[in-house]
Queue: 2 jobs
Job 1
Amino acid sequence: MEKITGKNNNLIKDIKKLLSSSKQRRARGLFVIEGERLVFDVLNSFYDIKYFLITQTQFDKNKKAADAMVQKSEKSFIISEEICDKITDTDNPQGIFAVCKIKENTFSSLTGKKYIALDHVQDPGNLGAISRTAEALGMDGMIICGGCDIYNPKALRASMGSMLRIQVMETENLPDFLLHAENSGFHIYAAVPDSDAEKLTDTDFSGSSICIIGNEANGISKEVLSVCSKLITIPMPGRAESLNASVAASILMWEMLR
């Protein structure tokens, strides 16, 4: 393994850019994961690893997993603690990083029955939490249009690795995607805070279903609403007018799968 000690190393500069910029990630086709759990989780994902970077202390502590990462990565490096502090995106860096290749969106058709769709969900914490719940409950995948970049470091951390394992389909045109799904036999449900909508608890999810969660501030767009089979709502007898996007998604997915 090569050693990197200089903070002005070009690879280190590139990693900083990838961590901070969605535009750079998409242009380079690369994203960065950081931390012991996430990095070693990638061993069990379908992502290819371009670079693996680790401090000597962490390599000695996690030798078996680190050796596996070295075998799976195109190139591996030992980095100094100083460099770790320079490139980290966290307050308490663990000294383990991986640069992975973004997968092309090759999902041409829906292969399962239950999906959650996100219409411009912006908050990385919400995106990560929704993916974690989706994987835990056994959803077949996620459909994402706009909003937070799925390779955002905060979203990846909030997902606890789920974003690396669950099927994620990205689309720039959610209405067209949903129309195609409807023609393939899917029922399309839009979750709205509207007392006139059908109660979630009365909704029949026995068939192939997609349920949509909207943007935190503006909800589901009019264009997406226009192609939905049915509007549904979570009954809220309390005084709150709405729920956090990830909380609403969790309730919806639970009802879809029970």
Job 2
Amino acid sequence: MSKKIKLAIAGVGNCASSLIQGIHYYKEKQNIESSGLMHLDAGGYKPWDIEVVAAWDIDKRKVGKDVAKAIYEKPNCTAVFYPNVPETGVKVRKGPVLDGYAPHMEEYPEDIRFVVSDAPEDDLDIVVKVLKESGADVLINYVPVGAEKAARFYAEACLRAGVSFVNCMPTFIVSDDEWAKKFEEAGIPVVGDDIKSQVGATITHRVLTQLLIDRGVKLDRTYQLNVGGNTDFLNMLERSRLKTKKISKTEAVTSLLPYDIGWGNAHIGPSDFVPWLKDRKVAFIRLEGRLFGDVPMHIELRLDVEDSPNSAGSAIDAIRCAKIARDRGIAGPLYSISAYTMKHPPIQYPDWKAKEMVEEFLRGERDR
């Protein structure tokens, strides 16, 4: 078993920045405390056992720079909690643009949008070659919401290179039967789809929904409206890019219900872009239901979080579980960690059950 997890990254944005900062943050404070982690030790792997060996992006301010420098470049705007990540010796490569750039972004200042590099793009053969030569164990997909072609491009590269794929975006790959079968037949463990943050809008909404179910309250209608100021929210102003995102976020909540609340009674998804929020996400959640005697009640909540560190808190476990599965010779979708850290896993489980399954997996008592 390798003591290192060699990680490739597709999309060196805010989420990648938080993840990489976190690897070094916890390495530095490892003998002090482990706050902010769901697992300090996951199957023998600590956060600082993750090592970035390859990275791709399309922005000219990142392409060609060491990953340690690129994570602080604009349009990244997440919290800097570890300002001096040491150089990695890994340069950010130019990935294919494909559908990773929404045309409407051209209407906004350069500081808050992508500025596409004019460097030559890596084609599929080059990406596969880099993955193999770098010895990557896992590739984490952070391409933008709606970049369906780009997400599948990196999934295909992983298939050809024998690299595990952790899909943090809402393109349905790990939860798609055809793709899942390909990875299983290739002997590659995968995790996905669409990262469910540590304590984000989706997990909070799910917990409240489960509370109503457990206490006998009939849920009649609910909404979750999210606003933020990072590139992800700017990208999602193009509503045509939101189809799978809305499905993923909605099903994450409605899958818990033992009944159908009807079309239009569950509205969940991104709402607007507010530039000054930067990487903060503000979620407005409302649930309306009926208590004893059909007497109405409602819960209304405002959640305010830094979006990308919240995501990294889940991603760091997904990456380590993918490596553990590789060590054990397990192939295909990892149902436990996918249900625990993703909004649209191959199989939805209540969160308490998913947590229990992950603990069993880490102890070696469950295959997937």
